[in-house]
Write a structure and sequence with these properties.
Length: 287
């Protein structure tokens, strides 16, 4: 359906002709949605297998929370959290990516089978990331980011959010290319919720064609995020709880698929499996 895949995709996914579903697996005590649930490697592996069985094309494993205000963990702790999980998922035949801002963790994760490095900092958190990814030859997600979780919400100031996010992303892409990452390996992500207020996220979603037309596959991570909780707040102002935002997440997956987004990163896989089929048919005008 003319959404090109990045280089390095596992053979089993090459023929997939729709928006991919990325299952979220946070092996952390403090992520906003699934934090604390999969601290034990075996429980995490079982959940990753369940995500894949439910229809996730691959599972994104992270060992460091990026929720607003989260403090960083040591590299050794991050690796301890994710490597056994990646290894177990590889043994179970589940394709994986690694959600990390660290070059050393990326290298160790690729050795355990991860085919894509999902860097929410777009290379800004670790000066070694681009060179490392270039050497590894894996696919690389460049996400829009302005700073670590402790400070990012104070950096959510924009005159024109679409123009600024696009410009800043293009600067990151240029730096990644200059460091030797192949153009075909790059995936872009506007970074919903990262140094963004709710209406910044909506503005970016309204202008998705600005991002899909950059010439790289686009990944979106809207799943269960706070701007959905705010949108769905009850009349008395109670924000919709995290685990009651899956319908809204699926709606975004359908709209993303209709807009030609390459992949959606979600916690609830079945809702998005159906949603991307709807979005694909909507986009193509046929089933
Ligand atoms: N969001 C989170 C973590 N990793 N990666 C990408 N590429 N895009 C995102 O929007 C993104 C991400 C935060 O959500 P989580 O705590 O549920 O993982």
């Amino acid at each position: 359906m003319s959404i090109g895949h990045p280089a390095g995709l596992p053979a089993a996914l090459l023929g997939v002709d729709r928006t991919l579903i990325v299952g979220v697996l946070n092996v952390t005590p403090d992520s906003f949605s699934d934090g604390g649930r999969y601290r034990n490697a075996q429980a995490a592996i079982e959940h990753g297998v369940a995500l894949h069985t439910a229809g996730a094309d691959f599972v994104d494993v992270g060992g460091e929370s990026t929720r607003p205000g989260a403090v960083r963990v040591a590299a050794s702790e991050e690796e301890h959290r994710v490597l056994a999980v990646l290894s177990g998922l590889k043994a179970a035949g589940v394709p994986t990516s690694i959600d990390t801002m660290r070059a050393t963790t990326a290298t160790a994760a690729v050795a355990e089978g991860a085919f894509l490095v999902n860097d929410v900092s777009g290379g800004l958190a670790d000066a070694d990331m681009y060179g490392t990814v270039a050497g590894l030859g894996v696919a690389y997600v460049v996400m829009h980011w302005r700073g670590h979780s402790t400070t990012m919400q104070s950096q959510a100031t924009y005159t024109n959010v679409v123009e600024e996010v696009s410009r800043e992303l293009q600067a990151r892409i240029a730096a990644a290319l200059a460091a030797g990452i192949a153009p075909g390996a790059i995936v872009v992500d506007p970074g919903l919720g990262f140094a963004k207020e709710a209406d910044h996220n909506w503005g970016l979603l309204q202008s998705l064609p600005e991002f899909t037309s950059l010439g790289y596959p686009v990944l979106l991570g809207a799943s269960r995020k706070r701007f959905l909780g705010n949108l769905l707040a009850s009349p008395d102002g109670q924000v919709r709880p995290v685990d009651e935002r899956d319908g809204a997440t699926s709606a975004i997956s359908a709209l993303a698929a209709a807009a030609g987004v390459w992949a959606v990163r979600v916690h609830d896989v079945p809702g998005s499996v159906d949603a991307v089929r709807v979005g694909r048919a909507w986009r193509l005008g046929r089933a």
